[in-house]
Structures are given as C-alpha cells and as structure tokens.
Amino acid sequence: MRKFYQQEWFGIDFKSFYDKFYDEFYKRYKSYEELSESWRDSKKAVADFVLRQSDPSERILSIGCGSGYVEYLLRKEGKNITAIEPSLEATRFLEQFSDVKIYHGYFPECLDKTNSFDLAYMNATEYVFDKNALIKLLNCIKDYGVKRFLLVSASIYDGRFAPLRLI
After folding, report:
1. Given this model, what pLDDT does residue 16 score?
2. By three-state DSSP, how is residue 155 classified?
3. Is-contact 68 40, C-beta < 8 A?
4. Is the pLDDT of residue 164 over 50?
C-alpha cells in the first residue's frame, strides 16, 4: 500500500519539525497534568464525543494520536483503544501513563493484518494532507473494513481557501 501522507509543508520537512517539537515539548513538560487546563479541556471534549459515539465493547482505532491525551482519557474510561502515530517522539506520555496499544508508522501498513476495529477516528490530523491525499486515506480506512469512522476536525488547505468536498 502506498503512503498517502504529505511529507512536507511550505518546504519544511514534517519529520524534522515534529522530532524537534516533541524534543522541546518533553523537556518542558513531565506529565499531562502540567499542560494547560484549556488544552486538556479541549481534548476532553473530543474524548467525550468519541465516548458518546461508541458502544462499551467496541474496538477503537485512533489514527494520528500525537501525544495521546484523548486516547489516555478513553482508556481511563475502559475503552479498548489502539493508537497509530508516525512520530516515535510524540507518544512518550501515552507510553508512560497508559497501557494503550501503540503502533508507530502509517495506516494501514503499521497494523497487524489480524486487527479489526468497530470505530476509528482522526482528531486534528487532516491538516497534513492535501485534498486528494485525504480522500485517498479516507477510502483506505473504508477499504480496511472499519465499521464507522469519525473525522473530528477538518482544516484542509489545498492551495486555495475553499470547502473540501468528499465524493
């Protein structure tokens, strides 16, 4: 399967950017509780939304979990959640403070082929995709057999400021 992610934005390599960002992030903060209350509240709202959309026994997949606070909160609520994150640096807190299963890499290549999920979501990750790459990724998620999918935020930039139409 071909990778459908954007590797750079405005000529800046994402891997270099994220590695530097998370290196500095983890120098400044030692736990989720040290992060701003307003940031944690915004992520809790996302976790609450995902909770309302899911049934108790469902297997949930998070695509692009970043630092993993939403996934941390879902796991605290007893959810069976698996997270995918390309950055090895990003998930330090999630690895330290939770038993969420984490795959490092890109969907679906990094997953074991025996995995199945009832619900998958992406939260604030679509900004790294242009319109065509996001459409391809969404089709890939559908083809993987995920029963339901939530795109929690959308902020697409495809060279113009125009609404994105998914067909």
Report:
1. 67
2. coil
3. no
4. no
pTM of structure:
0.83
Rounded to the nearest 5 degrees, what angle is found at the Cα of 113, between the Cα atoms of 7 and 167? 55
What is the Cα 48 distance to its own chain's centre?
A: 16
Amino acid, res. 7: Q
User: Backbone phi, then psi, for 32, in 5-degree steps?
Assistant: -60, -35
What b-and-e string marks burial along 27-41, b requiring 16 or more CB atoms within 10 Å of the CB? eeeeebeebeeeeee
Q: Could you tell me the two tokens for 31?
A: 């736990």
| Per-residue pLDDT band at 20 (split at 50, 70, 90) | confident
Phi-psi region of 28 (alpha: psi -120 to 50; beta: other; left: phi over 0): alpha
